[in-house]
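Annual report, structural modelling task.

Input specification for the L-homoserine complex:
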Amino acid sequence: MSDFVTAYAPASIGNVGVGFDMLGLALSGAGDRVQARRTDGDSVTVAEVRGLDGELHPHLSTKADENTASIAAQALWDVHGDAGGVELKVLKGLPLQSGMGSSAASAVAAAVAVNALLPSPLAVEELLPFALEGEKYASGGIHADNVAPSLFGGLVLCPEVLLPEIIRLPTPAGVSAVLLYPDLQVNTAQARKALPKSVSMKLWLDQQGLLAGFIHACASDDIELIGRTLRDVIIEPHRKDAVSCFDDVVAAAMRVGALGCTLSGSGPSIFALCKDSDAANIASVMEQECRAGGTACQSWVSSMSAPGAHIEA
Ligand code: HSE
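The model returned the following structure:
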């Protein structure tokens, strides 16, 4: 049994445009780390939270009931921990309120790290409900579309009606994800409250058709069908105005070959799916367009089968 471990959990794209709250995609190249150490205490504590620059994080709380990492870890420890407690150090690689699944990545990394300290670690599938506790605190709702891909990797279908069961979907060969993070912040809990409480039957039917078509397209490597189905007709219209560069960035990405391009989670990040060979250029064009509008930004290119959370040696 280990006394000290470090776990890594990747960023993720919530909704993937077509599947509000029920479809998520893991991203490679960006994520959070959580170090967990057994202590003589009787609960989970947070010793510190640091940013990528190595400095103490200016915004995130070290109060155990205010940090998604410790909330997830405590939920797991309450049920499966033994005597003693756990001290966490959170190393934030992801910007806050970015639409990159930042709160979920901390919760997932903490659950994976604390799991490795248990006398009898659980199977990864069993960790989802604990990681979800942390996410619930951050976003005010139960949705696994960031937690599930961050935990399992790849493309994951996780409708609330099936939880804790999730479905790991096949991903198409030759397709990459490009994620642009404009240096803005969108509070997910507020963005969720601002959504309409009901939608028309027509819109619901259209979005169901797009989701079904998209999943089929991914399973059958049908790149042309991905291009016709990667659309959000319900949520995007209510959220895009919070991201000043959205329309210009999407138009630019589509001009240079993106199959589709929309918000990642509640934004401000914007993602495109595209042929592998177009990805570097699309990322560069999206960045240029965003900066031309006066917003600093950063981008990542990822495979659609990025690995999920894991213990680091
Ligand atoms: N499904 C969530 C939302 C993801 O769109 O509100 C938040 O990242």
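The longest helix spans residues 201-219.
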